[in-house]
Amino acid sequence: MRLAIISHTPHYFREGKITGWGPTVREINHLTEIFDEIYHIAPLHKDKSPDSSVSYNSNKINFIPLKPYGGESLSEKYSIITTARYNLNKIRTILDKVDWVQFRAPTAMGLYVLPYLTLKSKPKKWVKYAGNWQMEDPPLSYRLQKWWLKKNFMRSKVTINGQWEGQEPHILNFQNPCMDEAELDRAKKIALEKDFEKKLTICFAGTLTKNKGVDILLGALNKIKSKDEIREVIFAGEGNEKKRYEETAGKINMQISFRGLLDRKSLEKVYEESHLIILPSESEGFPKVIAEAAAFGCVPVVSDISSIGQYFNDTNGFLLKNINSDEISAAISLAISDKEGLKKKSLNCLRIAELFTFENYNKNLKEKILLSDN
């Protein structure tokens, strides 16, 4: 059985090898347990490969490069149109070789790929919608793609984050996988031994932007009265405003470090050190880093958006109903004052982490999509 994956995942050259964004590449590596051959059709960039990118681990996987598109400037946005013909031709040549195609949405490319796939009777299709299915005010292109998928013009299954009232039968809740069972077992052992009686370590993992809540997180840290109870706050990620955030952090009487984009091994070390992971995002699908950190007993302080509240609550985390510095500061202060309760939350996190293994994802994929009637 052969699969084509069409995505906007950025790829690069590093020492003669193709690399791609780590979480997506790892997921595709595990799909080789189901498929005999996989074609990943995605943009190839000329930039330096970041540490968060990794190479594929199987010769079953073939990378098919697309022209990059999109960006902030008007000319970059126009590139969505100018690259469409070339990219669609690339996609067309591969679809004739496969039994299944997965399209990963939402992305600007979806404005022409989804209609094109709708016209194709073969191969069989499913769509992985990785964004926030319940976003209140999505960009127009996202809104159009969601409408298209809800109407089921493609006659295919759509996997999303979460289960919602009135959800159409062809739209399925799938956990976004981020670890294998061996990695989960290793993380659990670390979580069970984690000491919550000492000073707390806090981490943030993601892009350093206002939308991800970095500004209000720094504001919250400044408001905490028991700063001496925090050993360190670690920011893992990059962003255009990193220098400004470092300057702001330097004015807070607390050990705060910015470690940049980390490879998986280094990021796991951060989870191992940390007691709390704070992600006060304005919009998310379901961030894999929450499940990854939870496997290490790292308690989430997270925005109550998208499907996050379907997995985390007061028994295993801190849900931010209002995304502001006062609420984050209050959650951190509560964690500091109730170390025993924090330990219980940590142990409860492990049950949630079990849902996000590649083995569980592949099992659901076979049962609910590949072996079901579309």
Give the domain tally.
2
User: For this structure, what is the CATH class of the largest domain?
Assistant: Alpha Beta
Q: How much is the average pLDDT?
A: 94
Rg, nearest Å: 21 Å
> What is the helix tally?
13
The N- and C-terminal alpha carbons lie at a distance of: 17 Å
**Beta-strand content:** 15-25%
Strand order of the largest sheet: 6-4-1-7-8-9-10
Helix content: 25-40%
CATH architecture annotation of the largest domain? 3-Layer(aba) Sandwich
SS-based structural class?
A: alpha/beta
Poorly predicted tracts of residues: none
Name the shape in a single word. Answer: globular
- CATH fold description of the largest domain: Rossmann fold
In this structure, how is the largest beta sheet organized?
7 strands, parallel
How do the helices and strands follow one another from N- to C-terminus? EEEHEEEHHEHEHEEHEHEHEHEHEEHHH
Helices and strands in order, then pairings?
Elements: E1 2-6, E2 11-14, E3 17-21, H1 22-31, E4 37-43, E5 53-55, E6 61-66, H2 74-82, H3 84-95, E7 100-105, H4 110-119, E8 124-129, H5 140-151, E9 157-160, E10 171-173, H6 181-192, E11 200-205, H7 214-223, E12 230-236, H8 242-250, E13 256-260, H9 264-273, E14 276-279, H10 288-295, E15 299-303, E16 318-320, H11 325-337, H12 339-353, H13 358-370
Parallel strand pairs: 1-4, 1-7, 4-6, 7-8, 8-9, 9-10, 11-12, 11-14, 12-13, 14-15, 15-16
Antiparallel strand pairs: 2-3, 3-5
Helix pairs in contact: 6-12, 7-11, 10-12
